[in-house]
Amino acid sequence: MSTNAFANSGIRPATPGDIAALVAIENASFPGDRLDRRRFRYLLREANSVTFVDVDGAAVRGYILLLLRTGWRGARVYSIATHPAHLGCGVAARLLTAAERWAAAHGCVQVRLEVRADNAASLALFRGRGYVAFGSHGAYYHDGMDALRLRRMLAL
């Protein structure tokens, strides 16, 4: 899916110029296990990944970061976050839709992710979009909270 495919949607690929906004969203969204400027720079420039941002004018409202692995026909949502000022406005749903469409257009047959077992809002979003649990990781997060592993098969 090209950049033009997102025209008028408020979604676009992230650029290095977005790093300050990405770090600000990360710091406002997560109490620990945060991505820093250096990690975002690496993920945007060198990693086998793609990051999309939801923007309103110049304001970045949220982002989704997908990791890809050579030889695997899937994508992993490494991180998704919405700035707290825009929670409940559909930002995460729009980003997830864009990421799923991009993944399908690039030959991925599934999207996987981990989510905090106690994150009811995120679980509702993912389950409402057809994600199903296929495992868990005990004490996955910085505070010892478990993660549920979810996946959604994509229609090609």
From TrEMBL:
Keywords: Acyltransferase, Ribonucleoprotein, Ribosomal protein, Transferase
Matches recorded under Gene3D superfamilies: 3.40.630.30
GO molecular function, one term: acyltransferase activity, transferring groups other than amino-acyl groups
Top-rank taxon, per record: Bacteria
Keyword match Ribonucleoprotein: yes
N-acetyltransferase domain: residues covered: 9-155
PROSITE patterns for this protein: GNAT
Any Pfam family matching the protein: Acetyltransf_1
Claim: tRNA processing is one of the keywords in the record: no
GO cellular component terms, A-Z: ribosome
Protein name according to UniProt: Ribosomal protein S18 acetylase RimI-like enzyme
Record organism: Massilia aurea
